[in-house]
Amino acid sequence: MEIFDRMSLREHEQVMFWSEPRIGYKGIIAIHNTTLGPALGGTRFWNYGTDAEAIEDALRLARGMTYKSALAGLNLGGGKSVIIGDSNTRNREMIFRAHGRAVESLAGRYITAEDVGTSPADMDFVHMETDHVVGLMGKSGDPSPVTAYGVYQGMKAAALQKYGDDSLGGKHVSVQGCGHVGYFLCQDLAEEGARLTVTDINQEKVDVVVKEFGAKAVDPDDIYSVDADIFAPCALGAILNDDTLAVLNVDIVVGGANNQLAEARHAQEVEDKGILYGPDYLVNAGGLINVYAEIQGWPAERSLRKAGEIYHTLLRILELAEAEGITTADASDKVAEHRMEDVRYLRRTELGSLDY
Asked: Which residues are catalytic?
């Protein structure tokens, strides 16, 4: 599919490519929608197999950020950037300063932050070239604890809907991914008395969670078939697909990963299996809330309180899905799109009232 066809498919506004071969920088910035405000989304550093894969990832993630902002009630649009390369490289300053120049060229239409393969230290390099970056060291910093708290609150709301009680004490939760978000989610769950089964491609991260929270470890391919109450995907996306749904044996899916549904049709297939799905871009919005707080100058306590609202937002989504006989994914999209349309209407009204 040609690039403009890809953009039209999900109504993206802009895609920018920036290359500085001498220092090994290849970056893509995708802006999906700026109706609610400037596009905000993190920078993902990943060794993509092809340029086409990188473009598709940027487009999908940017769209998710638009809907995430809308559902979280933030005055932000959706964007995302990806850097193609080895995220383990030690030669980071020049790569991220080049990325900063790319971000600066958009003059505030896009604000970046950390994501998979990047860190607050990398964002400090970006900040050397642009002010349009958040998640800096000494400010909002690592958003993972707030992201995890939002996922945890979404999980409690899903439990209330499924079991009639939002307590997670004694519930068996399988967690895929023990990185930053997965670690803090396990911490929240362990403190409430949940039983944990975990996995990660990085054995050291698994060992930490096993030691600190008494979790049981399984191999990465075995996490899908664990007989658990709740599955929490906290790694990469597209993990709810034909193969995994054939073996998934849980009541609820709520996790921190982006783009968990491999295809839109999988939302219905999840529901057909009797599984309650908490849409990813709703429940993992805590990280976005955290960096929005940096822009607004909120204290950390307010960020956590705002992330806690995910509990009530998900209950609203579940109520709408049940009332209209639609999937939770469709219900989330509907609420987000209504907010964007309402803002468009307000702006049209404001422009129409100007006295020329």
From this structure: 80
